[in-house]
Amino acid sequence: MAPNPGYLKLALATYGMRLDESARARQDVFCAPWVRSYVARCVELLLPEDLWVSVPVEEEFTRQSPFVLVAEGDRFAVEGNGERVEVRPVPQPCFYQRHTSRGVPMWKVGTVYGGFIAINPSSACGFSLRGVPCKFCELGTRTMPDSEFALRVSDVIEVVQAAFAEGAAEFVYFNIGYFDTEDRGVGFLEPYVRAVKRHFDTLVAVQLHPPRTNQWIDHTYAIGADAVSYAVEIHDPEVLQKYCEGRVRYIGRERYYEALRYAATIFPSGTVWSDLILGLESPESTMRGIDALAGMGVVPVLSLFRPLEDIELRHHPLPKVEEVVPICAHLFNAVRNAKINMGWIRDLSFAITPLEARFFAGEDARLSVAIQHFYRSRLGTLAARNLARLRRRLRVRRVSDSFDASRL
Predict the structure, then answer these.
(1) Cα-Cα-Cα-Cα dihedral sign, residues 53, 57, 61, 63
(2) Quick one: average pLDDT of 60-89?
(3) What CA–CA distance (Å, rounded) separates 290 from 331?
(4) Which of 146, 230, 159 shows the shortest CA–CA distance to 195?
C-alpha cells in the first residue's frame, strides 16, 4: 500500500528533514541566501495526490529528523521510517531575483507558499511595538513602526504580476499584524486589495485582527476580499493568555469568536477561516476549538507549530504526530458535519486544511477528493471567481439599500 500523503505531510512539517549531499548540490531547489531567513530555511515539496508542504531544513530541531531528501538525476525522494516516497521540490520562484521599478527586491514584497503569494504590506506588528508579541510569531522580533515598512501599492502590483506571469502562484494572501485602530487595518489594506482586484482576475484572502465593530467586516467584503481570517490560534483561555498576551489585553479572546461568527454570515460558506496551532495546548482543547469554529460556520485550519530559532518558543517541544492524528480526523468530520464548503481554503503548505484532513478520517473520507479536483481545475477556479463577484455585488447592494432606507 502506498504511504498516506496526509501522514507524510504532517510528519515532514513537524519534524522537518535533513538534506543528503545529492540534494544539497541541487541549487535550483534551495532558496538563495539573499532571501529572508525563514524562507531560506524551508523547502516547498509537492507530495503524492498534490499535497503541498513547507518543510523546515536548516533549524536546530531538524537535525534529529528521521527524514532525508535525496536526489537521483532529475528525481527526488524522501526517505525515512523504512519508506521511500517520490516527491517534487518546488523551485524557488525566479521573480525572487528581480527588483521592482523602485528598486525594491521582490522577495521582500511577496513570498510564495503553495498556491498563494503571501504579502505583508506593513511588516511590523503593533503587539511587538507594545512589548507583548505572540511568543510563536517571527514578526514579534521586528520592532520598527509600520509606517517605516509600508509597501507601495505599485510594488505589490509589480510583484503579483511577476508571480502570476511565472505561474508561481494563483491567489493573493494579505497578512498584517495588529493595528491600534477601530478597523484594525482594513483601511490600510483597502488600496492594496482594490488594486489587485482591478488588475487581476484572482481570489484575494486577508488575515488580520478583528475590528472593534462589525461594520468593518462588511467593509472588508465590500472592498474585494474573497476570504477572511481572524486567527484564534489557541482555544484554551489560559494558554492563550500565556502565549498571546497582546491579543487578550488589546482585543479580547471573545471578540475573535464574535467577529468570526458575524463574518461567516457575510462571506460565502468556507471562506471564513481561523488558525489553531497544533502543539501549544492539549489535543482536547484544540478539538473543542474546532467544534466551536465549525459550529459557527468557520473553517478551522490546523497550523503547524515550529520552534524556529528566532522566536521566543524556540525551545518548546515538538508536538507528537500520534497525538495530532486524532485532531486531524476530528477536523475533517467536524467541518463535514457542519456542511461547510471545503473547496476554498486549500493549497496551504504550512497548515492542514479540512480537505487534507480526509487522509486521517478513513477511506470513505478520501472520496472527498472529487471536490478538490473540481476546484483545482480551471473550470472550478473560474466558477469560484464568478460566484464571488456575483455574491459581492448582491451583498454590497443590500447593504447600500439598507443605509439609504435608514437615511444614515
Answers:
(1) positive
(2) 92
(3) 6
(4) 159
Mean pLDDT of all residues in the chain? 84
Q: How far from 273 is each of 13, 75, 215, 276, 302, CA to CA, in Å? A: 20, 36, 19, 10, 10
- Helix (H) / strand (E) element for 38: namely helix 37-40
Contact 212, 180 (CB under 8 A): no
3-state secondary structure labels for all residues of 156-180: HHHHHHHHHHHCCCCEEEEECCCCC
Report the alpha-carbon angle 177-172-203, nearest 5. 120
Question: Which DSSP state fits 19?
Answer: E
Residue pair 293/299 in contact (Cβ under 8 Å)? The answer is: yes
Nearest CA-CA partner of 328 in 256, 255, 278:
278
Strands 204-207 and 171-175: parallel
Say which residue, 369 or 336, is predicted with more confidence: 336
Residue 309 CB burial class (10 angstroms; 0-12, 13-18, ≥19): middle
Instruction: Note the helical H segments in 226-350.
Output: 237-243, 245-250, 253-266, 283-295, 321-337
**Which residue's entry shows cell 444614515?**
408
Is the separation of the CB atoms in 304 and 11 below 8 Å? Answer: no
> What local confidence, expressed as pLDDT, does residue 257 receive?
98
Residue with cell 507549530: 305
Q: What is the pLDDT of residues 212-270, one digit of tens each?
A: 999 999 999 999 999 999 999 999 999 999 988 888 899 999 999 999 999 999 999 99
CB atoms within 10 A of CB 238: 10
Cell of 212: 472593534
* Beta carbons within 10 angstroms of residue 155's beta carbon: 23
Q: Looking at residue 386, what is its pLDDT? A: 54
Cell numbers representing residue 55 in the block: 518543510
Q: Which of these, 196, 269, 260, lies nearest to 232 by C-alpha position?
A: 260
CB 174 within 8 A of CB 189: yes
Residue range 11-29, pLDDT digits in tens: 999 899 999 999 888 776 6
Cα within 13 Å of Cα(164), Cβ side: 15
Output the DSSP codes for 61-104.
Answer: GGGG-S-EEEEETTEEEEEETTEEEEEEE-PPPGGGG-B-TTS-
Q: In 144-236, where does DSSP find H-type helix?
A: 153-166, 186-199, 215-222
How many Å apart are CA 116 and CA 346, to the nearest integer? 10
d(CA 365, CA 355): 9
